Automatic annotation (TrEMBL):
InterPro entries: FAD-bd_PCMH, FAD-bd_PCMH-like_sf, FAD-bd_PCMH_sub1, FAD-bd_PCMH_sub2, MurB, MurB_C, MurB_C_sf, Oxid_FAD_bind_N. This is UDP-N-acetylenolpyruvoylglucosamine reductase. GO terms for molecular function: FAD binding; UDP-N-acetylmuramate dehydrogenase activity. Its main location: cytoplasm. The active site is at R175, S225 (proton donor), E295. Its EC number is 1.3.1.98. Signal peptide: none annotated. Belongs to the MurB family. It comes from Candidatus Lachnoclostridium stercorigallinarum.
């Protein structure tokens, strides 16, 4: 693969290409193995070239933002991780509209909006992901979803073609969009906010923050809510009622503070986390006949650990 490496360096720059990159520091679970290639393209031309090179070599690739909804297997990823980092972390406010890059953190975007007395992103301030990732899964919290503020998005196809899709065309639903189905790459998005009182906006953000600190295990690495909400139920309540509060596999644990969160208590492998999630899914299915679907995305090759244990 020496030829491919040379091509990636030519496309993105030597300082933006790494090999055998540990992925644990790049995901909020703080677990997982190494990616064969880790590339940080700085503009659309470089991004298109990197994707083209991957396709020409038949090499899988994955778009990464803040890694807040991702679990990478302990055996690593035999492909290219394309990191939408600092070069994609811009925002440009014009009245009530904001154009922002896929790599900007929602927390930063919410703070910038508050500073300009713009309302609409208060609940998004505690979502640990980037704008790009939030669009892909229509992220939300406390009744807010990205579809509430998105007007349109600028995207790239795997062939390098640029598209602009409206909010309706993005097909934003509960934790989904058409973006992964159509294999599109988020470049930037345009949001429409509302004018408001800075004091009220800041107070709302602090209220949401206080609720998170009280109810969520923010002191431990995790990927937020681990399972999607099944229709008619709450995942955390099902897990709790199944007797799985505090259930552990190695260093992974069902949070005692909020059973909807799987946390890394320290030293958890990706295999620990995956095994625990499968145990939870199986137990809830057996007890209540409800199928829990992972909200967390998985990438790479996993190893199976030993059996879990109850607290």
């Amino acid at each position: 693969m020496e030829q491919m490496l040379e091509q990636l360096i030519s496309a993105a720059g030597e300082s933006n290409v790494r090999t055998m990159e540990p992925m644990a520091p790049h995901v909020t679970f703080r677990a997982g193995g190494k990616a064969d290639y880790f590339v940080s393209p700085e503009d659309e031309k470089a991004l298109a070239a990197v994707v083209r090179i991957c396709r020409e070599h038949g090499m899988p690739f994955y778009l990464l933002g803040n890694g807040s909804n991702l679990l990478v297997g302990d055996r690593g990823y035999r492909g290219v991780v394309i990191h939408m980092g600092d070069a994609w972390s811009f925002c440009d406010f014009r009245g009530q509209e904001v154009r922002a890059g896929a790599g900007i953190l929602l927390s930063r975007l919410a703070k910038e909006a508050c500073r300009r007395e713009l309302s609409g992103l208060e609940a998004a301030g505690g979502i640990p992901g980037t704008l790009g990732g939030a669009l892909v899964m229509n992220a939300g919290a406390y009744g807010f979803e990205m579809k509430d503020v998105v007007r349109r998005a600028r995207l790239m196809t795997e062939e390098g073609k640029i598209l602009e899709l409206s909010a309706d065309e993005l097909e934003l639903g509960y934790r989904r969009s058409c973006i992964p189905e159509r294999k599109l790459i988020v470049l930037e998005a345009e949001l429409e906010l509302k004018t408001g009182s800075r004091e009220e906006i800041c107070a709302a953000m602090e209220d949401f923050s206080a609720r998170r600190r009280e109810k969520q295990p923010l002191e431990y690495p995790s990927a937020g809510s681990t399972f999607k909400r099944p229709e008619g139920y709450f995942a955390g309540k099902l897990i709790q009622d199944a007797g799985l509060r505090g259930y552990r596999v190695g260093g992974a644990q069902v949070s005692e503070k909020h059973c909807g969160f799987v946390i890394n208590r320290g030293g958890a492998t990706a295999g620990d986390i995956m095994k625990l999630c499968r145990d939870v899914q199986r137990t809830v299915e057996e007890r209540f006949g409800v199928s829990l679907e992972l909200e967390v995305r998985t990438l790479g090759e996993f190893e199976e650990p030993e059996e879990g244990r109850r607290p």
